[in-house]
Design goal:
41% of the residues are buried. This protein has a domain of 224 residues. Strand 8 and strand 9 form a beta hairpin. The protein is 39% helix and 11% strand. Helix 1 runs antiparallel to helix 6 and helix 14 packs parallel to helix 16. The protein is built from 16 helices and ten strands.
Length: 358
C-alpha cells in the first residue's frame, strides 16, 4: 500500500469522522499500530490456556497484535463503534430471573452485526476514495486476527474494563466494534483512560466466576464461550450456573454502573427477531433443524449450530422449575440422534428427578 501525496490529513481525519457518523456509527477514533503491551498480555493469556478450544487465537501469531503484519503497509487504524440495544427490548434481568424463559445475549437478538458493520465500513472507505483517490485499506469486523478492544482504547473509544469489555464514559458498553486498517498517515487520537476504580461488580456477579482477576478472563469458564465457542459437552459443574442463558451472557455488563449511560441502537436491523428477547425454553426446544436454520438466517445465533442450540436449551430446561410441560419436552428428545444432546437431556432430567425426591 502507498499513501497518496499532497493531502491535508488533519482535515481528512475530521471528514472521516463526520462521514462515519453519517453512516450510522456512534463514534469513531484513529490510532497508531503499536500494541506491544497488549501483545505481551495476549501471550500470557494464551500460555495460561485461557483461550480454551479457540485455537485460532494462537494460530495467527503476532499478526493479531501487529497490524502491519496482517495488512502490509498499515499505518493507522480507524476504529468505529455501533450501539446495539434496540428500543423496546424485554428487560434482561426479568428474563434471566424467569426460569421458564430463555436468555439470549442482547447483541445477538437481531441481524448479524458483522454484515451490517462491514457494509458501512466499505461505504466509509469508498467515501474516502472519492475524496483522495485510491488508497490502501482493509475493513475488519471480527473477521480476522485483530486486537479490536486495544485498538478502540487507543483510538479513544473507551477503556477495557475489568470484565475485558470496552466501556465508554458516555455510552456504557453495549456496542460493536469495527476497524478500517489504512496506509494513510492520519493524526491519531488520545487513548481513553480507565475509570473502573475500585469497583468489582462484574467480577462478583459472574455466574461461573470466569473473571479470575481484574482484566483477566478465563474463557473456559465464560458462559459466552461455553454456549457458543465450545463444541461437545459443557463441563457438568458449570451447567447449573449457566441458568437459562442459552446463547451468550450479559451479567457483567448488566451490573456495570457505566451502562446507565448506554445508548439505544438506531439500526433497525438490530431489533429482536422471533421474540427472542424473552421466549419460552420449551418453545425453542421444539424447533426442528429446518426451523432453526430458517429462523436464525442472517443472525449470529446460527454460530452455535443446531446441536449446540439443543444442548444449551437442555441445560436451561434442567435448571428450570419442574413442570409437566418441561418434563414432556425433555422426554421427547431423550433419544435424540446426537450423543451430545442426549447427554445433556439426561442430565436435565436427572436434575428434575433429584428435586422431586428431595
Amino acid at each position: 500500500m502507498s499513501a497518496p501525496p499532497s493531502i491535508d490529513y488533519a482535515i481528512l481525519a475530521t471528514d472521516i469522522k463526520a462521514w462515519a457518523r453519517e453512516l450510522g456509527f456512534a463514534d469513531v477514533g484513529i490510532s497508531g499500530t503499536d500494541l506491544g503491551n497488549d501483545e505481551a498480555y495476549l501471550e500470557r493469556w494464551l500460555a495460561d490456556g485461557h483461550h480454551g478450544e479457540m485455537e485460532y487465537m494462537s494460530r495467527h501469531g503476532t499478526r493479531r497484535s501487529r497490524p502491519a503484519e496482517l495488512e502490509p503497509g498499515t499505518l493507522r487504524v480507524v476504529s468505529v463503534r455501533m450501539d446495539y440495544i434496540p428500543p423496546g427490548t424485554a428487560n434482561a434481568w426479568e428474563v434471566i430471573n424467569d426460569g421458564d424463559k430463555a436468555y439470549v445475549a442482547r447483541y445477538a437478538l437481531g441481524r448479524d452485526y458483522h454484515k451490517v458493520m462491514r457494509n458501512r465500513l466499505q461505504k466509509l472507505a469508498a467515501r474516502i476514495g472519492e475524496r483522495i483517490g485510491d488508497f490502501g485499506y482493509r475493513a475488519y469486523v471480527d473477521s480476522a486476527p485483530v486486537l479490536e478492544k486495544a485498538l478502540a482504547r487507543n483510538a479513544g473509544l473507551g477503556w477495557i474494563g475489568k470484565h475485558t469489555v470496552v466501556i465508554n464514559k458516555r455510552a456504557g458498553s453495549y456496542f460493536f466494534l469495527g476497524e478500517l486498517y489504512t496506509d494513510l498517515p492520519l493524526p491519531v487520537d488520545e487513548p481513553a483512560t480507565a475509570h473502573c476504580g475500585s469497583c468489582r461488580r462484574c467480577i462478583d456477579i459472574c455466574p461461573t466466576q470466569a473473571i479470575v482477576a481484574p482484566y483477566r478472563l478465563d474463557a473456559r469458564k465464560c458462559i459466552s464461550y461455553l454456549t457458543i465457542e465450545l463444541k461437545g459437552s459443557i463441563p457438568e459443574e458449570l451447567r447449573a450456573p449457566i441458568g437459562n442463558r442459552i446463547f451468550g451472557c450479559d451479567d457483567c455488563q448488566l451490573i456495570c454502573p457505566w451502562n446507565k449511560f448506554a445508548q439505544e441502537a438506531t439500526e433497525p436491523d438490530f431489533a429482536p427477531r422471533h421474540s427472542l428477547d424473552g421466549p419460552k425454553l420449551v418453545d425453542l426446544f421444539a424447533w426442528t433443524e429446518a426451523e432453526f436454520l430458517s429462523r436464525t438466517e442472517g443472525m449470529a445465533i446460527r454460530r452455535t449450530g443446531y446441536e449446540g442450540w439443543l444442548r444449551n436449551l437442555a441445560v436451561g430446561l434442567g435448571n428450570a422449575p419442574t413442570s409437566t410441560e418441561i418434563l414432556t419436552a425433555l422426554e421427547a428428545r431423550a433419544d435424540d440422534p446426537s450423543d451430545v444432546v442426549r447427554e445433556h437431556v439426561a442430565w436435565a432430567r436427572a436434575q428434575h428427578a433429584l428435586r422431586s425426591s428431595s
